[in-house]
Design a protein that fits this description.
alpha/beta, 8-stranded parallel sheet, 22 strands, globular
Length: 393
């Protein structure tokens, strides 16, 4: 029987929505998965037509990672990158297992955010050669001056429905997620507007109390960015923003699992408290990801990277994003935090895909979904990456 040049067959321990299958197989035809399940149940016609067969006694076949909070990499920043720069960012993160991502902005003047949205919309209008940009995550500018982190406080403004309506009109469907401070003027109205228009409203860089977060969740808030960082902490008499994120099952919660932003014990506590689909691995990676130590710019602010740790030049105690990659974060969740491979895979793939509403086409290994596939060895090192059935690395 003739072999299709577009088909690929993989054998190994397959991680599917139903769990880990030790002796499993994944078959890809064109851009889609045509089989994911026990190798014993693989239709013979698919095996006969497969162009590439990888038989392994060990290793893992997993869905591609979905990074919904990433600012850049390979020396490029989404706020300033041209087409070549966007290719550099998506290529680097693709080489680290990311197959889908949201271009994340910084707090900046409106005209600068407009320019990013225009740039990403244009990039998405043609074939994207590496990781797909599924849309944009607006991190700011509707955040708290008390918790700017590495965001430029000069450009923080109150929430504006006028701005949101203009972005939606000019770039329909492009903004998938927005981070804001729910306690700020106009925030509750903005949260309701975001929910009504199918955009995820997330808290972050916020001074909100527990009670203010609860009111925001009632208004439509459903997500929290980089949990424990740039928010009010947990106290037994003042649960704060962190307490609300830990205790409310209606909120999914991001974590930067690099051993720098959050202690592994705190990551473990978060993972234990959130529902199975509530923990979201992100990188919050900046332009310095994949680059040597040195000085870099982030949202108009100077940063210094030493031993892979990015901080503001003006304040060495203020972390400025990370140099983390998704494969490193996945490995950290398993090896340092103690999550199972299935739990870590869900946090890195299915859960973020579900948050932004793309789990019907990616984020897991199942028939009919896009063939966004990773191959890892027994040590969880990344060996191969496929995006929509095309091997990239």
């Amino acid at each position: 029987m003739s072999r299709s040049p577009q088909s690929t067959l993989l054998y190994g321990s397959v991680i599917t929505p139903g769990g880990l299958i030790p002796d499993g197989a994944v078959a890809m035809q064109g851009e889609q998965i045509v089989y994911a399940g026990p190798a014993s149940g693989l239709p013979s016609v698919l095996e006969q037509e497969a162009e590439q067969v990888i038989r392994r006694k060990g290793g893992y076949i997993m869905p591609g990672f979905v990074d919904i909070h990433v600012h850049g990499g390979s020396g490029e920043d989404f706020m300033e990158a041209d087409i070549e720069g966007l290719n550099a960012i998506t290529s680097f993160h693709c080489s680290q297992g990311t197959t889908s991502m949201l271009a994340t902005t910084m707090t900046a003047p409106k005209h600068a955010i407009d320019a990013v949205l225009q740039n990403i919309q244009q990039y998405r209008s043609s074939t994207m050669p590496y990781a797909r940009l599924e849309g944009v995550h607006l991190e700011g500018p509707f955040i708290s001056p008390q918790w700017p982190g590495a965001q430029n406080p000069e450009h923080i403004v109150p929430a504006s429905i006028v701005w949101l309506e203009e972005w939606q009109q000019n770039f329909p469907g492009l903004v998938k997620l927005m981070t804001l401070a729910p306690e700020r003027d106009g925030a509750l109205e903005a949260i309701s507007w975001l929910k009504e228009h199918g955009i995820v409203a997330a808290l972050g860089h916020t001074d909100a109390t527990y009670e203010q977060v609860q009111r925001a969740v009632d208004a439509g808030l459903s997500h929290g960015v980089h949990t424990f960082n740039a928010m009010t902490g947990l106290h037994h008499r003042k649960p704060g923003t962190a307490g609300a994120l830990l205790g409310d099952d209606r909120l999914s919660a991001e974590i930067i699992a690099d051993g720098i932003h959050v202690h592994p014990a705190a990551v473990s506590i978060l993972a234990r408290l959130k529902p199975a689909d509530g923990l979201i691995l992100v990188t919050d990676a900046v332009s310095a990801a994949g680059m040597p130590d040195g000085e870099y710019m982030l949202g108009g602010l100077q940063t210094i990277v030493e031993k892979g740790i990015a901080t503001l030049k003006s304040n060495s105690n203020s972390l400025a994003g990370s140099t983390l990659t998704m494969i490193q974060g996945f490995q950290y969740l398993v090896k340092k935090v103690g999550l199972s491979i299935q739990q870590a895979s869900a946090a890195a793939s299915f859960n973020p895909a579900k948050v932004i509403g793309i789990d019907d086409r990616t984020g897991s290994l199942a028939k009919g979904l896009l063939a966004d596939v990773l191959l890892l060895n027994d040590q969880l090192d990344l060996e191969a990456v496929w995006v929509q059935g095309s091997r990239k690395y």
